[in-house]
C-alpha cells in the first residue's frame, strides 16, 4: 500500500469514502512528516491539536454522511490568510502575535468543505519576494536538491514558498497559495508541484492580508492537476464581502478533465523566448508543445507585444498599492508597537522595526510613484500599459484557446543567490506577471527535470473564467509528462 | 448688498468658497455594517473594516449612494452615473486604514446650484462645484490623560457628503445664508440632520480678498472645521481683514490651512502649503467604479419632496405671501407644514401673521420646537376661526393665545371656561357706553369741540368696563354716534 502521505487528494478522498482509513489516521501520518521535515521551515505555526480535533469531527461527519468535498484531507494554509484564533503574520514581525478574531472567506470555505488545516505556512514577508527569503520567520528550504551539490540549500520560490515546499515534501496534501505576480506558479515550478492562480475575482480576497489588491488572488497548490481542480472548487465563489469577487457560478472543475484536447489551438507567444532563456527551460517548453500536438491540439504562434513592459509596469502598480495597503500597520491597534516620543516617532520606530528590507523598499517605491508630480509619469502610465497588456491577451484569445509558456526562466536557485540584487530577483516572475496584469488564470505544472535534477514547470494561461480549459489541457500534459520524480527523502 | 471692506489703499471685496461635510443619514456606515448613531459609548460601533484590520475589505452601502444622489438632485446638480472611489493617503492615529476612501477626480455629483434668500426678499444663485462621498475618520481625544491620546472609532467610516461651492460668495452674511439654505435643503431631503453642534455638518471656508473691481482670484487660505454658522462668519471676517492688512503692508498671503479659535475670535496657521500632505490619491483597487443606472436616479427624483425654493414660490402664489415671509416659513419643513395646516381653508395672511408673530414669539419664549410646539397648528387654526366668526376680537384672541400657550387647551374650551366670548349684544354695549359717557362729561365736551382723538380713550374705557370682551368695532361706532351725533 502506498504511504498515506503519498496519496493524491483525489485518491485519499475516495479511500476515505471507502473507509480504508480514517481522517485521524491520515492527519496523524501527515503530522509526523510535518515534524520530521521541520528543518525546511515550511510552517510558521503548526496546529496539530486543532488538526486532530478537526479530523475527529470529520470522521464523525463521514459516519453521519454529512461530509463535504474535501472532508478529512490535511492541508496547509499560507500565513497570509487570516484564521480565527490562530496567529496570522504575513511572515512579518509587525504582525507577530496577531490572532485574527475572524476567518478569511477562502480558508473558511475550505474548512466548511471539511479540509483539515495542519497550520500556517511560511511565505515571503507580505508575499513580497520570489524565493521565500524575506520572511521574518526565516527562509524556507526547497526539499529538492541539486544532484551536483546535494548539500546546497535551494529556495522553494516565492512568495508561497512554504506552501510549495510543504506540498512537495508530503507534509500536507495540498495548500492554499496566493499569487500577485507569480507567487503560486513560480514556487510550484521550483518545487515540482502544480498550482493555479485562478481568474482575478474567482476567489474572495476577504480576510487575506492585502499586498496589491488589484492583483492578489488565492489559488490551490497540490501535487496533481485533479487535486488543484478539486481544491479550487472548494475555494472559489462569489463573496458579497469582496466587491471585486465576481458573481458567477463555480463550475465542476474536476469534470473538465476529459483528457480530450483534440482541435484546441494552443498559443505559443514568440516574445517569451528571450535571449537569456536557459536551454533547459526552452527544451521543456518545446517538449510541451510536442505533447500537445501528439494529443491532437494545434500550436499557433502568437504575439504579445507589450509583454516586455509587464515587469516594469508591475513594479509600479504592485508597490503603489502595497504602500497604501500596508499603511494600516501603524502600531496602534494590533501587532508590533515600538513606543516613541510622539505619534510620528512611534510610527517611524514601529514600521522600521516591523518591516523587512524588501517590504520597506516596495513601500518607498510605491509612495514615490504615487506622489504629486510623479503620478502621471508612473502610476497613470503603468495603468495604461496594463490595459495594453490585457488587450494583447484578448486579441490572442481570438485565435487560440489556451497559451503555453515556461513558468520561470530557471530552476530553483541556491539560498543567498541573487538576493543582493532585487532586480535580478524580480526577473523570476517575468513569465507569470503578464498573466497577473491581465487577471487571467494561469497554471503551472511540473514538466521535467533540469540536468541537475531539479523540476521545471510549464505555464498554461486561459481566457478569463475559463479555468476549465486550462485544467483540461493541463490534465493532458500531466499524463504526457508523467512526472514521477520526488524530492530527496520523500 | 455689496460687502466692501475699506482699507488704507482702497476698497476690498471678499471671495469665499465653502466646503461642507454633511454626515449622511443612514443606519450603517459607508463601507461597513456598523451603526452610526450619535452619542454611543466610545468604540462600540466599530467593525473590523472601520478599525483597519488585516484583510478587511470595503463594500459600498447602497443607501448612502441613494442619499448622495438625492442631495445632488436637490441641488439641481448633474448626477454622474459612473464615479470612482479613491484613496487619500495620510497617517493619523484616528485614521485606522492609513487612508480615507473618498472620491477625487470622478465624484458622484457634478455642478449644481443653490439659491440664497436675501433679507430684502431678493435671491442670488451660488454655484455648486461638486458633491462627493467619503468616509469620516475617528476622533482623537487629547484631554483625558496628561500624556496619552484616546481614540474613538465610532465615527470612523461614517458616510459624509463633501459639498463644495464655487467661489461665488462675497460676504460673511452670504456665507451664513448659504449654510442656512444648504442645511434647509438637506433637512427637507432627510439626507443630513444638519446639526453643527454634534458635528454632523461641518464647514471649511476658503477665503481670499481682492480690490473691488478686480476679477483675479488671489491666494486663498482654508479655515478648517468651524462648527457654527456664526463662527464661520466671524472667521471669514477676521481672515479677510488679515489678508487686507498683509497686502496693504506690502506682504504676501501664503496658501495655508488655518484653524479658527472661537474663544479669541481669530484664525491661526495650522500648516503651510510646504508642509501640506501629499495625499497620493489613486483609485481604490478594493472597489470597482461605482456605476448607477439612470432609472435608479429617476426613481429617486420621482420621490423628491417639494423643496424650499418651490415651496416658497408656491406660498407666494397660493397664499399671497411676500417673499420674505415665505422664505422664513419654508426655511424649516416643519414650520412650512405648520403654517399650511393653520392656513388651510382660512385667511392666509392672518394665518401668516399669527404664525410669524405670536406663535414664533411663543416658540422662542418657551424654548420649544416646531415638532413639539407650544400651540398646535389645529388649535391656532381654530382660534383664527373664532376671530373670523366674531367670537373673539383681535384683542381677546391675544389673551386666548397666551392661555393656549399656558394651558395647552383648545381655544373653544378656553372661551367657554373663562367666558372670553366677545360681547356683540347691542344692549350690553350701549349700557357700558352710556355709563362711560355719563361719568366723563368734561371729556365728552372736548370731543365735541373737535378733539376727536379722545374717542380712542373712550373706547379703552368701555373695553376696560367690559373686561375686553366688547366688540371694539361696535363700541367705536356707538361712541361716535352718541357723542358726535
TrEMBL record, chain A:
GO terms for cellular component: glutamyl-tRNA(Gln) amidotransferase complex. It comes from the Bacteria. Residues 25-470 form the Amidase domain. Gene3D superfamilies: Amidase signature (AS) domain. The active site is at residues 78, 159, 183. InterPro entries: Amidase, Amidase_CS, Amidase_dom, AS_sf, GatA. Keywords: ATP-binding, Ligase, Nucleotide-binding, Protein biosynthesis, Transferase. SUPFAM superfamilies: Amidase signature (AS) enzymes. Its EC number is 6.3.5.7. It holds the Pfam family Amidase. Coiled coil: none annotated. It catalyses: L-glutamyl-tRNA(Gln) + L-glutamine + ATP + H2O = L-glutaminyl-tRNA(Gln) + L-glutamate + ADP + phosphate + H(+). GO terms for biological process: translation. It is an enzyme of class 6 (ligase). One of its GO terms (molecular function) is ATP binding. The keyword NAD does not apply. NCBIfam families: gatA. HAMAP family: GatA (MF_00120). Belongs to the amidase family. GatA subfamily. Allows the formation of correctly charged Gln-tRNA(Gln) through the transamidation of misacylated Glu-tRNA(Gln) in organisms which lack glutaminyl-tRNA synthetase. The reaction takes place in the presence of glutamine and ATP through an activated gamma-phospho-Glu-tRNA(Gln). Heterotrimer of A, B and C subunits. This is Glutamyl-tRNA(Gln) amidotransferase subunit A. It comes from Paramagnetospirillum caucaseum. The gene is gatA.
UniProtKB/TrEMBL annotation, chain B:
GO terms for molecular function: asparaginyl-tRNA synthase (glutamine-hydrolyzing) activity; ATP binding; glutaminyl-tRNA synthase (glutamine-hydrolyzing) activity; transferase activity. This is Aspartyl/glutamyl-tRNA(Asn/Gln) amidotransferase subunit B. The lineage of its organism: Bacteria, Pseudomonadati, Pseudomonadota, Alphaproteobacteria, Rhodospirillales. The keyword Plastid does not apply. Allows the formation of correctly charged Asn-tRNA(Asn) or Gln-tRNA(Gln) through the transamidation of misacylated Asp-tRNA(Asn) or Glu-tRNA(Gln) in organisms which lack either or both of asparaginyl-tRNA or glutaminyl-tRNA synthetases. The reaction takes place in the presence of glutamine and ATP through an activated phospho-Asp-tRNA(Asn) or phospho-Glu-tRNA(Gln). GO terms for biological process: glutaminyl-tRNAGln biosynthesis via transamidation; translation. It is an enzyme of class 6 (ligase). Heterotrimer of A, B and C subunits. It holds the Pfam family GatB_Yqey. Its EC number is 6.3.5.-. Residues 337-483 form the Asn/Gln amidotransferase domain. Belongs to the GatB/GatE family. GatB subfamily. Keywords: ATP-binding, Ligase, Nucleotide-binding, Protein biosynthesis, Transferase. InterPro entries: Asn/Gln-tRNA_amidoTrfase_suB/E, Asn/Gln-tRNA_Trfase_suB/E_cat, Asn/Gln_amidotransferase, Asn/Gln_tRNA_amidoTrase-B-like, GatB, GatB_C_1, GatB_Yqey_C_2, Gln-tRNA_amidoTrfase_suB_CS. It comes from Paramagnetospirillum caucaseum. It catalyses: L-aspartyl-tRNA(Asn) + L-glutamine + ATP + H2O = L-asparaginyl-tRNA(Asn) + L-glutamate + ADP + phosphate + 2 H(+); L-glutamyl-tRNA(Gln) + L-glutamine + ATP + H2O = L-glutaminyl-tRNA(Gln) + L-glutamate + ADP + phosphate + H(+).
